[in-house]
Design goal:
alpha+beta, 125 residues, 33% strand, 6 strands
Length: 125
């Protein structure tokens, strides 16, 4: 009986661990070989787990395109002093992003490659 219970617990732990591994995706969908420079205005900063998102309004001639940019985890940003209020709507940014391979207006962003529009670093401390 004890052996069966141990096996059942081990199987449950393995299934739970495997689920979390498969739930996290790779970053292969982003083209890291051809980064893009974007200048735009924050429409929304989503401080959600497992990844943060910046919805950035970028003017393209007479049209404004909203780019959906995926970033690091909130827990990693919190360690650097970030909160859900760090990038309020209307914040103007210059970003170097890794675009989606599909060509859709989206990509991956990182703090180190993001500055305010005037060139100042995003210091949160």
């Amino acid at each position: 009986m004890r052996l069966k219970m141990t096996a059942l617990i081990a199987a449950g732990a393995l299934v739970g661990f495997a689920g979390s591994v498969f739930a996290h995706h790779s970053f292969a969908m982003f083209d890291q070989e051809h980064p893009l420079d974007l200048v735009g205005t924050v429409k929304e900063f989503k401080f959600t787990s497992p990844h943060t998102f910046v919805l950035l309004e970028v003017k393209n001639g007479n049209e404004t395109v909203v780019w959906n940019l995926e970033g690091g985890s909130p827990s990693a940003l919190v360690r650097d002093g970030w909160t859900s209020k760090t990038l309020p709507p209307g914040t103007e940014l210059k970003m170097k992003i890794d675009p989606l391979r599909s060509g859709a207006p989206g990509g991956a962003w990182g703090v180190a490659k993001t500055k305010f529009k005037d060139g100042k670093a995003l210091n949160t401390h």
